[in-house]
Amino acid sequence: MIHPGGSQKTRTSQWVPMAMLVAGLVLLAVFLLHTQGALGAAMRSEMDAWFHRKPSVAAPPVLAGGNWAPVAAGAELVSGFGWHGQGAAARWQPQVVLRVSTETPVWAGVNGRVVSRTAHQIVLQSGRSLTLKESGLIGIQVSVGERVAPATLVATGTEGRITLALWDQGLPVNPLATLFFGSGWVAAR
Fold first, then answer.
1. 66 lies in some domain
2. Is the CB of residue 157 less than 8 Å from the CB of residue 103?
3. In this structure, are residues 150 and 107 in contact, taking their beta carbons and an 8 Å threshold?
4. 73-124 pLDDT per residue, tens
5. Distance CA 63, CA 126 (A)
6. What CATH number is associated with residue 105?
7. pLDDT tens-digit series, residues 163-180
8. How many CB atoms lie within 10 A of CB 81?
């Protein structure tokens, strides 16, 4: 068959890219099945997640047994999650700021693992999709890689404020939403 411009396109050229893709996937699968060690395990895990990806559902990766607990006692909401102000002065705040006493101990609040720690903040990974950042901490008691439970003491005090930021699959969500920590433990300002 002759197409405009004088080039001849055969049926073969239509299925060659698809055949190459299938052959590449077969070779990759064979490689992954025979690769040993941490690299092979990591690659198999990523490929499994890629091929078995499920639709996103906004639900915490915890059981109904109460794995989400308040991070501090006596907290008062200073600044909430979402848009603040109006018009051109409006700004987006993807976290909540809570006022607490400087001597207030801070707990993890969730089951998870410490993935980052600086002088005044920790980042916890909970399940496969949730990341929680707690900032404004003094006397941090946990280390990177450590597993934590809701009642794990993560800091002996605060800077007078705690900032909680929560991401679900990389998107900011309100940590005080009923689905996560809830707001019953935080006093309104």
1. no
2. yes
3. yes
4. 889 999 999 998 888 888 999 999 999 999 999 999 999 999 999 999 999 9
5. 12
6. 2.70.70.10
7. 999 999 999 999 988 778
8. 21
HSE-up of residue 28 (Cα within 13 Å, Cβ side): 11
Domain that holds residue 18: 12-51
Residues 79 and 143 in one domain: yes
CA distance 159 to 134: 12
Angle at the Cα of 176 from the Cα atoms of 103 and 79, rounded to 5 degrees: 65
The Cα–Cα gap between 53 and 47 comes to 10
Distance CA 25, CA 125 (A): 31
Domains contained in the chain, number: 2
Q: Are 35 and 103 in the same domain?
A: no
Tokens standing for 162?
Answer: 């705690």
Output the pTM of the full model: 0.62
